[in-house]
Design goal:
By secondary structure, the protein is an alpha+beta fold. Helices cover 48% and strands 14% of the residues. The strands form four sheets. A four-stranded mixed β-sheet has the order 1-10-4-5. A two-stranded antiparallel sheet has the order 2-3. The longest helix has 31 residues. The structure holds adenosine-5'-triphosphate (ATP). InterPro entries: Kinesin_motor_dom_sf, Myosin_head_motor_dom-like, P-loop_NTPase.
């Protein structure tokens, strides 16, 4: 199919994503300018699969033959299973839904050959780490770790996913035709390929396990007014495990959950948190640690692939978030507020205005 579309005039053959990739590659060569392909559509429409096929076509056109070792394009394609383990989850619409935006930048030299690449990710859905509802699941990596070989389950102190609060808010633990135990081994294998060492892999899964235990820490009222303390022996035990896995001081960890530090010009003031606020600070920590882990993995992949500072042009492929429809959509509410701030009358808003409001919200999210 790639051979058929290679060099064919656009529109001459049936519509195909290879026709788009081919005209994009030719435009880059003939007009000496960088190009971008935007892949958009509803969740589950096939954007991520399309992005992978577009990359295969660009590798077919711009790949180097006879290169020793793994080529840039192979490495980009091989990074997908790692990104999907940490950034994809089962949703209502798609068993393998990307919960982040991805811009793959493929760099070309003056001969039109691929010389480097970079993967940039946007707006990982952090809330999923702590909050998930039926019939959806949390990120794949959590279930993979719980289904790991017995020695790893013991080493990372995990077990049945039903015993973790961040996983048992929904009754969905398995995905049809997906074997989490096999996916765990395949993800570790994919990590080997993208240059993540065994030691680093262990550290990654320690963080994943720590987040699961963090979610099982609960609080009750402390002695002082509006203060909190660990609720019971179970919570104390989970805190100990988190501190051990994250290699941090147990007391400092507890303080960071039960207290808030206010920075003032006259010095720092420590204020206790009530049990509800302590729960919020627990969830905030889990979300922050997870999104930093994700960013670290993306950086690691980029270092391993390698960039070409002398690239003549690039082809970017943007795989954006799939559109979804919720009963309560907080993003839409934020957009509505933004529209009101912009003094729009909501009843006379055109699609174009709505889109620019969405973009304003997106860029605000990105900058905060
Ligand atoms: N070209 C294809 N051939 C066969 N199956 C496909 C193809 N494209 C997509 N699918 C099927 O549809 C599912 C959803 O595709 P994909 O994950 O690419 O959707 P998406 O648009 O990226 O969704 P989201 O926005 O939720 O991430 C895939 O897991 C696969 O089973």
């Amino acid at each position: 199919m790639m051979e058929q579309y290679k060099g064919a005039t656009f529109g001459e053959l049936s519509p195909h994503l290879f026709a788009i990739a081919d005209s994009c590659y030719r435009a880059m060569i003939n007009e000496h300018g960088s190009q971008s392909i935007l892949v958009s559509g509803e969740s589950g429409a096939g954007k991520t699969e399309t992005t992978k096929m577009l990359m295969r076509y660009l590798a077919f056109m711009g790949g180097r033959s006879g290169t020793e070792g793994r080529t840039v394009e192979q490495q980009v394609l091989e990074s997908n299973p790692v990104l999907e383990a940490f950034g994809n989850a089962k949703t209502v619409k798609n068993n393998n839904s990307s919960r982040f935006g991805k811009f793959v930048e493929i760099q070309f030299d003056k001969y039109g050959k691929i010389s480097g690449a970079a993967v940039r990710t946007y707006l990982l859905e952090r809330s999923r780490v702590c909050q998930v509802s039926d019939p959806e699941r949390n990120y794949h990596c959590f279930y993979m770790l719980c289904s790991a070989p017995p020695e790893d389950v013991k080493r990372f102190k995990v077990g049945n996913p039903r015993s973790f609060h961040y996983l048992n808010q929904t009754s969905c633990y398995e995905v049809a035709n997906v074997d989490d135990a096999r996916e765990y081994l395949e993800t570790r294998n994919a990590m080997d390929i993208v240059g993540i060492s065994q030691e680093e892999q262990d550290a990654i899964f320690r963080v994943v396990a720590a987040i699961l235990h963090l979610g099982n820490i609960n609080f009750s009222k402390g002695k002082e007014i509006d203060s909190s303390r660990l609720r019971d022996e179970k919570s104390i035990n989970h805190l100990k495990i988190v501190a051990e896995l994250l290699m941090c001081d147990e007391k400092l960890l507890e303080d960071s959950l039960c207290q808030r530090v206010i920075v003032t010009p006259d010095g720092n003031i420590t204020k206790p948190l009530d049990p509800d606020s302590a729960l919020q600070s627990r969830d905030a920590l889990a979300k922050t640690v997870y999104s930093r882990l994700f960013d670290w993995i993306v950086d690691k992949i980029n270092n391993s692939i390698g960039q070409d500072p002398d690239a003549i042009s690039i082809i970017g492929v943007l795989d954006i978030y799939g559109f979804e429809s919720f009963k309560v959509n907080r993003f839409a509410i934020t957009t509505f507020v933004t529209l009101q701030k912009c003094k729009y009358d909501i009843n006379s808003v055109s699609k174009h205005d709505l889109l620019s409001a969405h973009l304003t919200v997106l860029s605000n999210c990105a900058s905060t």
